[in-house]
């Protein structure tokens, strides 16, 4: 059902956790609907220097948040904003059709965390 | 790694005794039961022997058993077959809200295509239908009530005799889906007071692709598969002979082993339930604590999602089931868990264990060892759990 890459990220989620003094925080989803993701970022000189997340959800949701965190770490904010749901799903070796919506959540949560940072740091 | 399989309501292996009984009917005993020569009539005789065995499992007579392709087909035949036969008397059918989809959707089909009205009865927090509520739902147009004997999702056994008494008094026919209970707890169709009852072959450790419907003498059924004179004209199509042989043998074994089996399963069940409720914080046990299937334990864990938990456990060789929306193809919260008042977010954390006699105490111990860290690990990933732990609303 799931690709080996999905299972690897589920079994060993990268960057999982929280950043207590995050520069940006974004949360999407709702446990009532089945998935919820919270992303935390640290930003220095416009670059995402650290990223953590927590995920409530299925195997796909956990793997998506893991891959998105990997793709975003070390990127500039502009680059990170371009991480699409499609790119996340592709990097995971594909997702089952009825789990594609999980890939939206990862990109959305990251985008919200970046937006939160930008709102706090606009001059 | 040793496999610990605890999803027997989902599928169960065919017993070796059942398989060996079936095998000759694929090859030497291949005759068509409708044929007049020996090769056919011997097979026909074998079918009738199995019919008697399946009937004996539920205290019925052989002539009141129809073989079908599945429990779902038996449910369809009961509901559509009876309602269509009685539509001149009235067009109202009552089912409980926690029935299998084959019951729920058969009732919806009657609404959509045959001008029936369907009532979906609510259940209490244990999943039981209140007899008074059933009595109030009956109308002069009601022709059939269908309420399951037990739920495969929450393990609750209905107080069926109280429900059938209500219907008998009102002169309304009563069907029960006994897929979860046949061969598991004693069934006597007369004592239960049911007019129709569904049995499934795989649930008895028989093969997939075979089921049966008991119908009380004199009940008219409109066939749902039109064809020849098979099953006394109630179901067309050449009989699934190996399947019938397998179901008969499985029913025979189940009947002889039932008391011992139930006691054994109950011991495993109670140990798992007590263990989980002791070892894991913030877990809700679902279904009725006493009036439940002997080999069934079901829970909802706060702050995590069931599909992820299933995969976490399968890494340790443990196989169970979940009613989580994420694990369902439709991505919808389990209607059964909703019906018993479980919050939708808590319903996501559903986990269901169903045992057979191949399971052991040692396996239960292994589950009790592996489950708490799996839950704890997923909770450490979970923003919902973090908020809950911080005292905020989930």
Describe this structure in words.
The complex is a heterodimer of chains A (123) and B (394). Helices cover 46% and strands 22% of the residues of chain A. With 123 residues, chain A is of the alpha+beta class. A 3-stranded antiparallel sheet of chain A has the order 1-2-3. Chain A is globular. Chain B has 13 helices and 12 strands. In chain B, the strands form 3 sheets. Chain B has a 7-stranded mixed sheet, with helices on both faces. In chain B, strands 9-10-12 form a 3-stranded antiparallel sheet. A two-stranded parallel sheet of chain B has the order 1-11. In chain B, strand 5 (142-146), helix 6 and strand 6 (173-177) form a beta-alpha-beta unit. In chain B, helix 9 (306-314) crosses helix 12. Chain B is globular, with a radius of gyration of 22 Å. Chain A binds chain B through residues 7, 10-11, 13, 16, 18, 27, 31-38, 54-62, 98, and chain B through 303-305, 307-308, 311, 315, 324-327, 329, 331, 333, 343-345, 348, 380-386, 394.
Secondary structure: elements and pairs:
The complex is a heterodimer of chains A (123) and B (394).
Chain A: H1 4-11, E1 24-30, E2 35-44, E3 47-56, H2 59-72, H3 77-81, H4 85-91, H5 100-121
Antiparallel strand pairs in A: 1-2, 2-3
Helix pairs in contact in A: 1-2, 2-5, 4-5
Chain B: E1 4-5, H1 16-22, H2 38-57, E2 65-68, H3 71-85, E3 92-96, H4 101-114, E4 117-121, H5 131-137, E5 142-146, H6 160-170, E6 173-177, H7 189-192, E7 196-200, E8 211-215, H8 241-279, E9 283-285, E10 296-301, H9 306-314, E11 318-319, H10 335-339, H11 344-347, E12 350-354, H12 361-381, H13 383-389
Helix pairs in contact in B: 1-8, 2-8, 3-4, 5-6, 8-12, 9-12
């Amino acid at each position: 059902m799931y690709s080996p890459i999905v299972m690897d990220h589920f079994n060993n989620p990268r960057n999982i956790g929280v950043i207590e003094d995050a520069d940006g925080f974004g949360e999407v989803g709702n446990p009532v609907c089945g998935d919820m993701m919270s992303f935390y970022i640290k930003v220095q000189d416009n670059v995402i220097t650290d990223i953590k997340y927590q995920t409530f959800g299925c195997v796909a949701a956990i793997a998506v948040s893991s891959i998105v965190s990997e793709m975003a770490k070390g990127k500039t904010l502009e680059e990170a904003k371009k991480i699409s749901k499609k790119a996340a799903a592709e990097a995971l070796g594909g997702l089952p059709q009825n789990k594609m919506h999980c890939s939206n959540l990862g990109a959305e949560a990251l985008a919200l965390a970046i937006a939160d940072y930008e709102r706090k740091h606009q001059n | 790694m040793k496999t610990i399989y605890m999803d027997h309501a989902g599928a169960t292996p065919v017993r070796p005794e059942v398989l060996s009984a079936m095998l000759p009917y694929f090859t030497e005993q291949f005759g068509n039961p409708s044929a007049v020569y020996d090769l056919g009539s011997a097979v026909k005789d074998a079918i009738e022997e199995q019919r008697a065995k399946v009937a004996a499992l539920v205290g019925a007579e052989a002539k009141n058993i129809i073989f079908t392709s599945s429990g779902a087909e038996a449910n369809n035949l009961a509901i559509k077959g009876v309602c269509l036969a009685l539509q001149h008397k009235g067009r109202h059918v009552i089912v409980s809200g926690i029935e299998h989809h084959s019951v729920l959707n058969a009732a919806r089909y009657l609404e959509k295509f045959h001008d029936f009205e369907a009532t979906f009865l609510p259940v209490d927090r244990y999943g039981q239908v209140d007899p008074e509520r059933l009595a109030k739902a009956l109308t002069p147009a009601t022709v059939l009530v269908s309420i399951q004997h037990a739920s495969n999702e929450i393990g609750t056994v209905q107080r069926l005799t109280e429900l059938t008494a209500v219907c008998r008094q009102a002169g309304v026919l009563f069907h029960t889906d006994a897929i979860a209970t046949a061969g598991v707890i004693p069934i006597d169709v007369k004592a239960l007071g049911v007019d129709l009852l569904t049995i499934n072959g795989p649930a008895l450790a028989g093969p997939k692709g075979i089921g049966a419907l008991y119908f009380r003498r004199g009940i008219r059924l409109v066939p749902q598969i039109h064809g020849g004179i098979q099953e006394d004209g109630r179901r067309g199509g050449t009989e699934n002979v190996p399947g019938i042989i397998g179901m008969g043998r499985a029913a025979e074994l189940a009947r002889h082993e039932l008391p011992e089996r139930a006691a054994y399963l109950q011991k495993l069940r109670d140990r798992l339930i007590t263990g989980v409720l002791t070892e894991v914080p913030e877990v809700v046990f679902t279904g009725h604590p006493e009036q439940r299937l002997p080999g069934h334990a079901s829970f909802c864990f706060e702050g995590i999602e069931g599909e992820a938990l299933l995969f976490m456990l399968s890494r340790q060789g443990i196989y169970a089931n979940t009613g989580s929306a994420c694990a369902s193809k439709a991505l919808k919260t389990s209607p059964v868990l909703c019906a018993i008042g479980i919050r939708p977010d808590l319903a996501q954390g559903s986990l269901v264990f169903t045992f057979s006699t191949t399971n052991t105490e040692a396996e239960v111990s292994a589950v009790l060892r592996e489950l708490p860290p799996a839950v704890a690990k997923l909770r450490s990933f979970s923003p919902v759990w973090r908020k809950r732990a911080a005292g905020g609303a989930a």
